[in-house]
Amino acid sequence: MKDQVLFIFAILLFQNANIAQSNIFWADRALGAILTSDNTGANVDTLVLGQTALRRLRFDNDNTNLYWTGGDGVLKRSDLNGQNVTSVLSVSTELNIVELSGSGRIYFTETGDDMIKVCELDGSNLDTFVLGAGTVQGLDVDETTGHVFWTDFTGGAIYMTDSLANNVTTIYDNGESLFDLQLDFSKEHIYFANRSSNTINRINYDGSDFQTIVSTTGQPGALSLNLSLEELYFISNNQVFKINLDGTSLEMLHSYNGAILAGICNPDTGIGVPTVVENVEVDDYRIFPNPSFEALSISSKLPMHTISVLDLQGRVVLRRSNCGLTEEIDTSIWESGTYFLNIQNDSGEVLSRKIIKM
Q1: What is the pLDDT of residues 216-267, one digit of tens each?
Q2: Pairing label, strands 280-282, 285-288
Q3: Does residue 266 lie within any of the structural domains?
Q4: Which of 224, 189, 245, 317 lies closest to 14, judged by CA?
């Protein structure tokens, strides 16, 4: 790279055969540009120009559109080639964190605000999700349960709530400056950046089993997980690194002279599910037959608020609301394979199970 001062504010990893396997996308604040390369740093290309104070990048659940936030208070999207740029949402202040869920919702925060807000992928149905969330610098959604996790940078804590924002729970609280956060759904692990200790750490969903994955030479920034490759990507000291999830094989991918880097993301992180596949009779639910050929029956002792089914890529195959006590799902048109069933009751509690279509 040329010896120049660059302001790179957002970077993400993308896995899609239509672009290139494990491409990296990032935003250069000084240039107002979104760029891409392969995951070795080669084949750099500029996708979008003329953007203001770029901050975070995300893909939608089908990996067909790229979303980003900026200092102009507008959430924008384009296709994966940087074409067809459109505005999705506009706010009066600077948009900060943004996260897209598999259920087709956008979670976001505004700079200087202590609220997490939510809307649909087209910007409609804007609503406040959590009040008093603190200074949110990291946010992720567990697609198998709908639970939302976030860091409070000022308060030094990690919180969790269900998809209805009931029962906010403190997962971890050490009073230090906690930055970005990413979830390993398959193992129920939380990876987070600590800017007080300059480390990237891991804990379980219940806050137990604290481990330091890597100590960084500078303050760690945004994180991204690639569960298929069991790799963690992160930003520190104007450099982009990758490391195995067990803390081995640290490798620098990009280095910028005088750059400011943040916002790394990987849209294909995988879906975490239980490993047992069988008829389910647990927690007031009965789900059968599993595996299924033509239909899947679900019964519950409590009213079911929503039922959703996701495929291995996290795409929503089915979503129903106000389902009552029994539901019959036609699986005959589904492709054979593994799916993830999520049932949410009226109290916001979620049961998640792996189901097989034969």
Answers
A1: 989 998 888 877 678 888 888 878 888 999 999 999 987 766 555 555 555 5
A2: antiparallel
A3: no
A4: 224
Q: What is the per-residue pLDDT for 20? A: 46
CATH, residue 353: 2.60.40.1930
State CA 147 to chain mean position distance. 11
Is 90 within a domain?
Answer: yes
- The model's pLDDT over 39-75, given as tens digits with 9 standing for 90+, comes to 777 788 888 898 888 877 887 766 678 888 877 888 8
What are the Cα distances from residue 292, in Å, to 149, 187, 338?
A: 33, 26, 11
Element holding 26 (H helix, E strand): strand 20-28
- The token pair at 234 is 């992160």
242 and 345, same structural domain? Answer: no
Q: Number of folded domains in the chain? A: 2
Question: Which pLDDT band, with edges at 50, 70 and 90, does 282 fall under?
Answer: low
**Whole-prediction pTM value?**
0.71
How far, rounded to the nearest angstrom, does the alpha carbon of residue 197 sit from its chain's CA centroid?
Answer: 24
Examine the domain organization and report whether 300 and 251 are in the same domain: no
Computed over every residue of the chain, the mean pLDDT equals 80
| Tokens 């089914």, located at residue | 309
Give the integer Cα–Cα distance in Å for 140 and 137: 11
275 within domain boundaries: no
Q: Indicate whether 312 belongs to any domain.
A: yes
- The proportion of the chain whose per-residue pLDDT surpasses 90, expressed as a percent, equals 26
For range 176-192, the mean pLDDT: 90
Residues 239 and 297 grouped into a single domain: no
Phi first, then psi: give them for residue 265, nearest 5 degrees.
Answer: -155, 150
Which of these, 126, 204, 217, 211, lies nearest to 172 by C-alpha position? 204
Residues 150 and 286 placed together within one structural domain of the fold: no
CB atoms within 10 A of CB 72: 16
How far apart are alpha carbons 222 and 63 in whole angstroms? 20
Mean pLDDT of 141-167: 88
- Measure the CA–CA gap between 225 and 230, rounded to whole angstroms: 7
Q: Are residues 63 and 202 in the same domain?
A: yes
Q: 108 and 19, same structural domain? A: yes
Identify the domain containing residue 330 by its residue range.
280-357
| pLDDT reported for residue 348 | 67
